[in-house]
Amino acid sequence: MWKFNFVKDHNKRPANFYAANYDDSEWKDFPVPGLFELNGYGDATYKNVGYAWATQFDPNPPYISELNNYTGSYRRTFDLPKDWKGKDVYFHVGSATSNLTLWVNGKYVGYSEDSKVAAEFNISKYLKPGRNLIAMQVMRWCDGSYFEDQDFWRFTGIAREVYLYARPKLHAADIRLAAGLMNNYRDGILNYQIALKGGKTDVTVALCDKDGKQIASATGAQGIIKVPKVKAWTAETPYLYKVYISLKNKQGVAEVIPQKVGFRNVEIKNAQLLVNGKPVLIKGANRHEMDPDGGYVVSVERMIQDIRIMKQLNINAVRTCHYPDDPRWYELCDEYGLYLTAEANLESHGMGYEEKSLAKFPEYLQTHIERNEGNVKSFINHPSIIVWSLGNECGYGINFEKTYDWVKALDKTRPVQYERGGYDSKTDIYCPMYIDYEESEKYCKSDGVKPYIQCEYAHAMGNSEGGFKEYWDLIRKYPKYQGGYIWDFVDQGIRDKSPVTGKEIFTYGGDYGRYPASDYNFNCNGIIAPDRRLNPHAYEIQYYHQNVWIKDLDAVNGAFKVYNENFFKNIDDLNLTATVYANGMKLATVEIPETKGIAPQATKLIKSDELKYAVAEAESKHAKEEIVLNFAFASDGTQPLVDKGQVMARQQFIISDYQFAKPAVPAVAAAPTKKGKVQETSSMEVEETNSYVKVSAQRMSVTIGKKTGMIDYLDVDGEPMLKFRESMTPEFWRAPTDNDYGASLQKEMRVWKNPQMTLKSFDKNVSKDNVVLTALFDMPEVKAQLMLRYDISAAGEVNVTQKMTTDKEVQVADLFRFGLQLQMPATFSKLEYYGRGPEENYVDRHSSAFIGKYESDVKDEYYPYIRPQESGNHTDIRYFSIFNPITGKGITFEGYEPMECSAIPYLVEDLDSGIEKTHAWGQHSGDLVDKGLVQLHIQKCQYPLGCIDSWMTKPMEKYRLHYADREFTFKIKAK
Predict the structure, then answer these.
(1) Model confidence at 667, in pLDDT bands (50, 70, 90)?
(2) Which of 107, 172, 179, 742 is deepest in the core (most CB within 10 A)?
């Protein structure tokens, strides 16, 4: 805790606060690390494009305003240890946003910018024996802020550790350890350079294995150590050697500095990025340093948790968007195995990419170079870094060309990339962002000689990642397409309480302050939630990132091939099982040990008699049922941060298809129509009035309104299944997703939100075995007719047919859904369904959701995205049941072909943000108020999600619901 003073405007900062006799008794205690806005000082601001001062003044570099330029002043005393006498004493600040000014004992020491690399000051000459005073000042904005316009929360304060340390006058000022491979990547070679400060001395460099056993050594401030048959470092096999650098002076050992090194090579050949000679696939994500409680302050425990999740999701690479991370992150990536594209703290997005781009002004060249220097020199020894990135979204110009040359001159062992210059620029990797499938394939087919790795793609905002499959189909097809970095890893919400409900929410842009600069929830586009829960689309990413695949299955003979997609390790740490199901019921699980010894990039044919017999028995005893075979590769727990039993790869195969029933053609034999209750057959009752027709058979009674044409009441054993006076109605709309808003679909498709439906006719036909009621509607706004037919059988089952006939001469927008909705009392809280689950899934995002029989509580079917939106869908449904868990009574929906269903405790309008997203409370899942109901959606199909971007592009054409004639039939029966 430091003594702290906060002022809203910089010109009101305290004068001479750094003097020893300054009275700080009225100052507050403040945590370091700690951010102003998360500790009660100032308003948290989020901005994507444009500077945080966007609502206050226009950019005019290098000038900034003093108004609203929060300034924090800090004071703290310490006692100088007696044994530090005669040593160099350094003051270290890991990260200060936006700048740092330092005084010691009332004297000015120095100033620092670049908020994401450490600032260190040699304060030896300012110190005195005993008690000393350190004073600091941090500003919200400075001229350096023009180069820190990243897409994240704009906080102020100190985000990383602050400490003092002492070193002998004679010490190592810099250490360069370049550990590479030679002799066809078999042997290691360590080139080292030690820069000394304070004089010359003897230097010894000892190389040890991971257990500390010395295997080689050398003397001198620079030299070479060779290691035959070295254990190479990769993200798959992150073996680290230990290096001890010893400096001696006349009194003995002055310093011993431990370091870790990994031997590996990175190069580009034949339009591919190679690690140790192999064209690795980048299964990557962009990761902001963000914690829901600490903001920029991220603990080591949180970092390890993030890596654990990345391992679970088969993520092998991270881009440190858009700045250097805490040094511990690089150490952890070295240790646990992640490839890094390490980016400099450089983004001037708010100046645009054209004539005002700061990349084009030579007076800012030094800034570009210094920010890359802070990145490269700080982290050059880390094997996990395989690519340097010069920055992000600054435009392109002479400053980046010269900065590229500077980095390449300093480090010849790694490629250097920068996105904004495009292909024909100084970038070793063609690394665009948000390129769609067609353009990606076009480059893959071209004569381009640079590897193609998108620095950002598959924008994971809200309910997203539809079409992720198609990206990875291309990546696995074309050698020069080596993957990309998903935007991004974690939703950047801040934990807070809803003023509406008092429940926990995660806030986003615009939630704080009266006139905030904001881009709303555009910082909530993660694979995982702020509290590190997996968002539903994480499972699809996990699936298409997986490193083991089953190919060429011949289930009849129990034969299949296993392909190990790893480049450097076998799959001996995975145990394979195959499980056989019939209509969702598990029949047998077979363990298959023959996967041991499958080499990287190798395929092995496996034949299992036990699997052969299990499949044969299933087909024999369950001949008319759907037989599926699920393969699962589970960890044996020997890999770091991967739990025993964690499934790392899985696939499902349909052995025999589900036997959907065929809907019977309804009988339409005319019968006398009488008002009042009429006993039509021994098992059916028909009651007709001027207002309704009620048909009762077996346990079910159905009441269709003559003026609505809808099922107005549905009862099972006399218990209402529908909310009172809430009919089962056609549905064409969904609560728009973030991607929908980005593509303006909430405007383009608005005609389908509540289209006018005018009842044109209502017919009744009765036969011995069924009653058929048909309602025909005009839909003038969409130039269509809609027919609803209810075929109620003597068995107490209702076949519902929804048929839309469209005008072929007009153009009308796509639909979000084609189906029906109904509202039920909240007591119907339990689900059983057979289809894809258990996570929500959609037409363009369902590969990871296997067909099976699932049970669920309605309350768990809605996923609390940061901003409410469409949620809970399930595709390929065979049947879908909802019931009261106490009585067991409810209703079941059966399809005559695969259908889509969902049941959540909110209405569509509860999740719909309207024409535009706003700052208004009510736009967080924790703001949602319990309505005491369940809304079911029974549909033939729903519009896809998409993932190319979240600001312009629609989902893939092949998945969309175009305006066209459509027909959907399903059955309702009592459960």
Answers:
(1) low
(2) 179
Chain-wide mean pLDDT for the chain? 96
What would the pLDDT profile of 568-593 be if each residue is shown by its tens digit?
Answer: 999 999 999 999 999 999 999 999 99
Active-site residue list = 393, 456
The token pair at 149 is 């316009």
Q: Which of 244, 533, 524, 233 is nearest to 384 (CA)?
A: 233
> pTM, whole model, 2 decimals?
0.96
Token pair 């904001």 in the structure block, residue: 518
Q: Note whether 874 and 902 are within 8 A (CB).
A: yes
SS3 category, 11? helix
What gap in Å lies between CA 939 and CA 190, rounded to an integer? 63
Residue 292 has a pLDDT of: 98
Kindly give, in sequence order, each residue whose CB lies less than 8 Å from that of residue 291, ignoring residues fewer than 6 positions away: 297, 298, 299, 302
Per-residue pLDDT at 918: 76
The pLDDT of residue 677 is 52
Q: Could you report the per-residue pLDDT of 321-355, keeping only the tens digit for each?
A: 999 999 999 999 999 999 999 999 999 999 999 99
- Does the structure show a pLDDT above 80 at 194? yes
- List residues bridging with 676 in a β-sheet: 688
Identify the bridge partners of residue 108 per DSSP, sorted by sequence position. Answer: 103
CA pair distance 871, 862, nearest whole angstrom: 6
Q: How far apart are CA 508 and CA 904, in angstroms?
A: 24
pLDDT value for 254:
81
Q: Helix 300-312 crosses helix 327-336 at what angle (to 10 degrees)? A: 40
Q: Who contacts 579 (Cβ-Cβ below 8 Å, separation ≥6)?
A: 586, 588, 589, 590, 629, 630, 632
Residue 679 reports pLDDT greater than 50: no
pLDDT of residue 493: 96
Give the mean model confidence (pLDDT) for residues 254-282.
97
**Locate tokens 């005019």: which residue?**
60
DSSP assignment string, 282-334:
EEEEE----BTTTBT---HHHHHHHHHHHHHTT--EEE-TTS---HHHHHHHH
For residues 198 and 801, the model is more confident at 801
Tell me if the bond preceding 531 is cis, omega within 30° of 0.
Answer: no
> Which residues have C-beta within 8 Å of that of residue 432, sequence separation ≥ 6?
419, 422, 454, 455
* CA dihedral of residues 598, 599, 602, 605 (deg, nearest 10): -20
CA atoms within 13 A on the CB side of 504: 9
Backbone CA torsion sign across 73, 78, 83, 85: positive
Distances in Å between the alpha carbon of 880 and those of 701, 732, 827, 876? 19, 20, 17, 11
Residue with tokens 């029933």: 661
With pLDDT > 70 as the criterion, what percentage of the chain qualifies?
98
Q: Please count the other Cβ atoms lying within 10 Å of the Cβ belonging to residue 583.
A: 18
Beta-carbon neighbour count of residue 635 at 10 Å? Answer: 18
CA–CA dist 933, 602 (Å, integer)? 53
- Strand 317-319 versus strand 282-286 pairing type: parallel
Give the per-residue pLDDT at 672.
46
Distance of alpha carbon 646 from its chain centroid, rounded? Answer: 20
Q: Give the whole-angstrom CA distance, residue 433 versus residue 179.
A: 32
Q: Confidence band (pLDDT; 50, 70, 90) for 768?
A: confident
Which residues are 520's β-sheet partners? none
| Sequence letter at residue 824 | M
Collapsing DSSP to helix, strand or coil, 124 comes out as: helix
DSSP 462-498: SS--TTHHHHHHHHHH-TTEEEEEES-SB---EEEE-
Q: Rounded to an integer, what distance in angstroms lies between the CA atom of residue 148 and that of residue 135? A: 25
Sign, Cα dihedral of 914, 916, 920, 922: positive
Of the two residues 514 and 733, the one the predictor is more confident about is: 733
